[in-house]
Amino acid sequence: MHHTRRTLIAVSLSLTLTFAPLVTAFAASPQPAKGEHGMVVTAQHLASEVGVEVLKKGGNAVDAAVAVGYALAVVYPNAGNIGGGGFMTIRFKDGRSTFLDFRERAPLASTKTMYLDKDGKPVKGASLDGYLAVGVPGSVAGFETAREKYGTLTRQDLMAPAIRYAKDGFVLEQGDVASLEGGAERLAKDPAAAAIFLKPDGKPYAIGERLVQADLAAALSAISEQGRDAFYKGSIADGIVKASAEKGGILAKADFETYAVRELEPVTCNYRGYEITSSPPPSSGGVIICEILNVLEGYPLSYLGAGSAETVRIMVEAMRHAYVDRNSALGDPDFVDNPVEKLLDKNYAKEIREKIDPFRAGVSQELMPKGFGESQETTHYSIVDNDGNAVAVTYTLNGSFGAAVVADGTGILLNNEMDDFTQKPGVPNLYGLVQGEANAIEPRKTPLSSMSPTIVAKDGKPFMVIGSPGGSRIITITLEAIVNVVDHGMNIQEAIDAPRIHHQWLPDTVYIEPFGLSPDTEKLLAGMGYHLDVADATWGQAAGILVGGKSLADIEKGGGARYNGAIDSRAASGKAIGY
Ligand code: GLY
Predict the structure, then answer these.
(1) Ligand 1, atom 3: nearest CA belongs to which residue?
(2) Most informative mutation of 418, 452, 474 for ligand 1 (most atoms within 8 A of CB)
(3) How far is the CA of 450 from the centre of ligand 1 (A)?
(4) What is the pTM (predicted TM-score) of this model?
(5) Residue 174 lies in a domain
(6) Could you tell me if 238 and 253 are in contact, meaning their C-beta atoms sit under 8 angstroms apart?
(7) Does the beta carbon of 450 sit less than 6 angstroms from any atom of ligand 1?
């Protein structure tokens, strides 16, 4: 949750707009990590090491992504998982690309109104805490599908490091401890979760102590030996279903037995000659990133400058219009006819540009569709191998530590992804998103996501791998990193570290990171009628790779490192490792 430190109400100031590039205060960033053969960027340093070891052993980027996915489930328990779900975007060395959807599905017994009371009001916390919040997990099926179809190493090889870290434990560093402290209150409410993630005296672990997860080691070993059936048909599913039935949930064995990964065509678009490949529905991410980029393409952002009032105004208006579409028109493609072609049409972007007032802030309420009634919560990692195969994975438990429940004996934290559905049209969710019918709950349906694992190519070659956690802000975080590299010439680390802004249609507020804009810029925007909220905390933890140099200028000079990796300076435990 982001608290308001300072709120600027729109005031009527007669200020002359200037189109001269303004200098924004970027914090100096560390240099990106360099590598000539491969690069792995994840939110936890041990997981990055696991990925690099797989590449060094001759595994490809998909092998490394699978090993990292299992490792993060152990060493990054707030978001890494086998009890949640996610997306994998793959761009192969020959230029083909694909997308694996292993996101959670609504249980068979779920209903559209399951989180409403008898008066039709949302029951506080019902879609966030405990077993009723849990969607059918997809991560194990996702990793196994990726490995079987596109990997080269054995399951045992790829799971061994995760099993070792669960069985022998790993030494906690400052970032790990901060994350466990953040979850302590919720984890304490579930005895099985508390027994693993808190010390016997109920206190959080301290720096230098070792977190051992014996039950998780046993679950991972069972999967390693028997494959996905150990999770979906065997004792793990039985344990979760039993705990769910005893504690107010609705998960059934049939939910697990019928879970299937979808392989989908990624969303693609072209931005100023760069080919963007990203997540299709059931994510809104790729579609909305492309819709915003299509609108931005009509403006000289590079000339207007990073962080200038004009650039911020244009970006906010593009975001405002695109998030109306996100929140009203998109949903699971098996249930909803998504208007992807229309939303990606350059003419549609032109229509949006024509509606944008060059002098005044737009008004979100006026864009209300007819009939319409943070952040460490997710994690993203980026990998490139020696052959040029690129993989972007974003996966999640939704909230930090998900529903904060562990079925006895499994060691597996379960997600609270059901909150990503529309509980009631017009009522905001965890991320303040106000959504519509296209994302209503139905059995087996997948809730609409914002996760945006994205790969950018130029002239047929991989150029950038990027993504982030951040709930509804994932889209703007990923978008801004791309714009910062392509339009503003930042290197990959600067592009990720640069202060962020966010607008999501409703609430009609421009969120700004602390010190993100100068007071003069804020005044210019307030004068145009923008309601600004300077947050007291940063958001997102992007993980990116740039190929051929650390920045466009470096690439043009031709002397840059082949792979340049950057973990967000906001990340407490992540690392970019090249070799
Ligand atoms: N749970 C965050 C997302 O999928 O967008």
Answers:
(1) 449
(2) 474
(3) 5
(4) 0.94
(5) no
(6) yes
(7) yes
d(CA 560, CA 546) in angstroms, rounded, equals 10
Separation CA 62–CA 385 (nearest Å): 9
Q: What is the DSSP letter of 30?
A: P
Q: Which protein residue's CA is at the shortest distance from atom 2 of ligand 1?
A: 471
Would you say residue 293 lies in a domain? Answer: yes
**Atom of ligand 1 at shortest range from CA of 417:** 1
Residue 255 beta carbon below 6 angstroms from any ligand 1 atom? no
Q: Is the CB of 179 under 6 A from ligand 1?
A: no
Q: Which of left, alpha, beta for 277 (phi over 0: left; psi -120 to 50: alpha)?
A: beta
pLDDT digits (tens, 9 = 90+) for 95-123: 999 999 999 999 999 999 999 999 988 89
Q: What are phi and psi of 418, to 5 degrees?
A: -60, -20
Average pLDDT over residues 388-411: 97
At residue 431, the pLDDT reads 72
The total number of structural domains that make up the chain: 1
pLDDT of residue 424: 83
Per-residue confidence (pLDDT) for residue 100, from 0 to 100: 99
Share of the chain above pLDDT 90, in %: 88
Q: What tens digit of pLDDT does each residue of 469-485 get?
A: 999 999 999 999 999 99
525 located within any domain: yes
Task: Please name the residue whose Cα sits nearest to atom 4 of ligand 1.
Answer: 449
Residue 396: CB within 6 Å of ligand 1? yes
| Number of residues that make up the chain | 579
Range of the domain at 573: 1-108+261-404+425-579
Cα-Cα-Cα-Cα dihedral of 92, 105, 468, 461, to 10°?
Answer: 10
Instruction: Please give the average per-residue pLDDT across 244-250, as a whole number.
Output: 97
Gap from CA of 71 to ligand 1 centroid (Å):
20
Ligand 1 geometric centre to CA of 451 (Å): 6
Q: How confident is the model at residue 370 (pLDDT cuts 50, 70, 90)?
A: low
> Do you find a cis peptide bond into 507, omega within 30 degrees of 0?
yes
CA distance 338 to 358: 30
- Which CATH number goes with the domain that contains 534? 3.60.20.40
Distance 200 CA to ligand 1 centre (A): 33
Span from the CA of 489 to the centroid of ligand 1 (angstroms): 29
Annotate 235-262 with DSSP letters as a single string: HHHHHHHHHHHHTT----HHHHHT---E
Question: Which residues participate in catalysis according to the annotation?
Answer: 378
Residue closest to 374 by CA, chosen among 400, 335, 336:
400
**What's the pLDDT at 376?**
52
Task: Look at residue 214 and tell me if it is in a domain.
Answer: no
Measured in whole angstroms, how far is the alpha carbon of residue 429 from the centre of its chain? 16
200 preceded by cis ω (within 30°)? Answer: no
Which residue, by CA, sits nearest to atom 1 of ligand 1?
Answer: 398
